[in-house]
Structures are given as C-alpha cells and as structure tokens.
Design a protein that fits this description.
Layout lengths: L1 H14 L11 H19 L6 H7 L4 H4 L1 H24 L1 H20 L4 H29 L5 H8 L2 H40 L26 H10 L13 H30 L4 H29 L3 H20 L3 H12 L4 H12 L6 H27 L6 H21 L4
Helix pairs in contact: 1-10, 2-7, 2-8, 2-9, 5-6, 5-7, 5-16, 6-7, 6-9, 7-8, 7-16, 8-12, 8-15, 9-12, 11-12, 11-13, 11-16, 11-17, 12-14, 12-15, 13-14, 13-15, 13-17
C-alpha cells in the first residue's frame, strides 16, 4: 500500500498543481527559456520602426499606410488571443509556443516574397498572430511549473522579452538592413526564431503530459481521502469547462483598463519615438537605442520588481509606481531632445518597465480559480492587444498625418498615464 501511495504521489508530482505537492521547476530557468523564445519573436515585431522610412520608399507607401506595418501586428492580437488561450487549454501551452515560432517564420517568409505593400502588411498580420500565441502561453507555463511564491521572479524574467527583443531589433536592424538589405534582414530574424523554437523543445512542461479534456488540477478532497484516490481522480476527472464570465469583475475591469493604458504608452514609444527623433536630426541607430533604452533597463527593473513582490507578497504598490511614471516619461520622450530626454529614458526604464512582470503575476492573483489560467490569459492578452493597437493607430492620430504634433500627443499620453494610475490604485489587488 505504501508503494502504491508513493506511485500515486509520483503521478501527482508530475501532473498536479501547487495543491498536490508537485516538484516545481527552477523559476529562473523557466523564465530564461521562455525569454529566449519571446525575444526572437519580438525582434520580428520591432524590425520595422527603425527602417520605416526605407520601407516607405521600397514599397511606395505614405506615412499613413506604413503605420499599418505596426498597427496590423497589434490589431491581430485582439482576435487571436482568446482562441490561443482555448487552444493552450486543449493542446498544451508548450506545443502552442512551438507552433507560434513556426507561424512567425511562415509570416517572415511571406514578407520576404512580398512585392506590394498590402502583401507586406498581410505578412505582418501572420507574424502578429505568432506573437499573440506566445504572449498568451508563456505565462501559463510559468503558472503551471513554478512555485506560487516564486511566480513573481519567473514572470519578472519572462516579462522582459518584449523589451529585450525590441532593443535588440532596434540596434541590429539598421546594421543588418544596411549590410544585407530587406531580404537579408527578414531571413536573419526568422533564423533566430527557428533557433529559439529548438530551445523550447528542451523545456519540460508537466501539464502538457495530461490528456486533452482531462483535469490537470487535482480536485479538493476531504483530508481523510487516501492519496492514491486523489491521484487517480486528478488524472481522470473531466475538467469543468472554464467560463469567461467567471473572470470578469469590477476589479478585473479596473486592472484591464490600467493594463491597456500601460501598453498604449509602451507602444507609443517603441513605434514612433525613432521616427520623431529622426525628424529632429538623430540618426537611425541612435534613435533606435534611445527608444529602446527603457526596455533594456527592464533587465534590471522587471526581475527586481518580481523579487520584491515575492518578498512582500504584494503587486499593487509596485504597479502604482510603474504606472505613475509611464505618462510623464512618454511626454519627455516625445517632446525633449536634451537632458530631460534622458531623464525620461532612465525613469521609465528603472521604474516604469518594472511593471511588466507585475501585471502578469498580479493577474494570476485576481483570477478566482487556477483552472481559469489558460482562458484568462487569453483575455488578458486581448486587452494587451487593444492597448498596443491603440498605441499605434490612436497615437498616430494624435501625432497627425505628418507625425509632427509631438507636444499635443505627449500631453495627451501623460494625462492618459495618470488615468491608468488611478485605475490600478482603485483596484482591490494586493
């Protein structure tokens, strides 16, 4: 009987969740493996801003049409995120991450074959679908494999994938484009994604071992229930289908609202600051470095905020700090070219970017039950897509048809950032 119980316990440790005593994976290792895949796909997303003017010439696009090279990327996520969460629930998050890398490569190949602007924009939509799947499934793997008291640390590492990817893309894109042209750039970044997909194959995800339609979360049992029975039920009991309505509440909507604003400010910088600075005499490489420097500093702030949140057991104070600086920093990067520009860069990098992982780990705490993680992450990424789309499409409207209304757009984004701060302050999140 003892051996049987031990075997059953072993099954639980392999397929269970935090309640069953399963062995957890190293939070740093999980975060790093996911980070590599995220960086590769983010490089594909952000290969456009620093060579936007070149692409306008190559494909005979005006500024309004060219802006869709970023807007379509983020618009797609609004429609793909919910299906991505459902597919992760059905087939497993790791499998979906690997599929995402394949879709990103396919999108790049379509772009490589493009000879018109509509076809190039369509290829960006395919690449955007890949990014959305990756964004949805990465946090699910963290939640399934990392101890609850270390989720903040792992999310803090994983959360900087977009920042690092955008930084690498901003620095490398002008150089690679200058050396190998459009074709060489598209091929080079696709190869990086293929390598990242190979790394993902090495990642072990406990939950992917479960059979579709079967519970990966052990049901709550009375204390006297034998361990062997618990283990068997955890594997064989059908899952109660997660309901989207279980996710939504007043506090969740406040959280989503702040998250939308956070993403608007982030994309407003990544998508337009390189062009704004180039219009004022900065070269392409320097403008790319400036716009992505806050993201690079997130290497420090996001993991640090994650460790702090694990220590104090709270996300809200750190999110308020991060959200409060986003608006003013966006204003400075839009309107300044001297020392104040660098003040905005540093403040946003060391404080604002610390909120990336906090939004992810904070969301898991607001979820009413663990089985909502997959569909819940789909909902979160949908709102992220809304924010990122508005950060390109709406902000372009603020900047005007020639992208020259920098002060007007900067002031509007600063006010919006303060509104986001108020939303997260009201939200009843620990």
């Amino acid at each position: 009987m003892a051996q049987d119980n031990a075997k059953s316990t072993g099954t639980i440790m392999k397929e269970g969740t935090p309640q069953d005593g399963r062995r957890y994976q190293n939070p740093v290792l999980v975060g790093i493996v996911l980070l590599i895949s995220g960086i590769s796909v983010a490089m594909i997303q952000y290969k456009v801003p620093t060579i936007m003017t070149n692409l306008m010439g190559l494909f005979s696009m005006d500024a309004s049409t060219a802006s869709w090279l970023m807007s379509i990327f983020t618009l797609v996520s609004i429609f793909v995120a919910l299906p991505a969460g459902a597919l992760a629930q059905r087939f497993g998050a790791k499998r979906m991450l690997i599929i995402a890398c394949g879709i990103a490569i396919a999108g790049s190949l379509i772009g490589l074959a493009s000879d018109t602007s509509p076809m190039l924009i369509a290829s960006r939509a395919v690449e955007g679908a890949a990014l959305t799947i990756l964004t949805t499934c990465g946090p699910i793997i963290v939640q399934q494999n990392v101890s609850p008291d270390k989720v903040g640390t792992s999310m803090g590492i994983w959360g900087i994938w977009g920042c690092l990817g955008s930084t690498v893309a901003a620095v490398l894109t002008p150089t690679v484009f200058g050396m190998w042209g459009f074709d060489g750039l598209w091929i080079a970044f696709a190869v990086v994604t293929a390598v990242a997909g190979g790394v993902l194959l090495r990642l072990h995800n406990h939950a992917d071992e479960g059979r579709p339609g079967r519970a990966l979360v052990a049901p709550r049992k009375p204390a006297q229930m034998p361990v062997a029975v618990e283990a068997q039920d955890a594997v064989t009991q059908p899952v109660r289908k997660p309901r989207y309505r279980d996710i939504f509440s007043k506090d969740m909507f406040l959280f989503f609202g702040a998250f939308v604003v956070y993403n608007i400010c982030m994309l407003a910088i990544l998508a337009f600051v390189p062009t704004i600075l180039q219009m004022q005499g900065f070269d392409a490489t320097l403008s790319g470095i400036i716009s992505t420097a806050p993201m690079l500093l997130s290497i420090i702030s996001s993991p640090l905020f994650g460790v702090i949140s694990d220590k104090i057991g709270r996300n809200k104070p750190l999110l308020i700090i991060a959200m409060f600086v986003m608006g003013p920093c966006t204003f400075l990067l839009y309107t300044q070219t001297g020392p104040l520009l660098w003040v905005g860069v540093i403040a946003m990098g060391l404080l604002g970017m610390g909120g990336i992982g906090q939004y992810l780990s904070g969301f898991t705490k607001l979820l009413p039950s663990p089985e909502l993680a997959s569909v819940g992450m789909g909902v979160l990424v949908t709102f992220q897509g809304v924010g990122q789309f508005l950060g390109t499409f709406f902000v372009q409207m603020l900047l005007g048809p020639q992208l020259t209304e920098w002060w007007f757009a900067g002031i509007a984004l600063m006010v919006l950032g303060f509104a986001g701060t108020a939303l997260i302050a009201i939200c009843k999140l620990r």
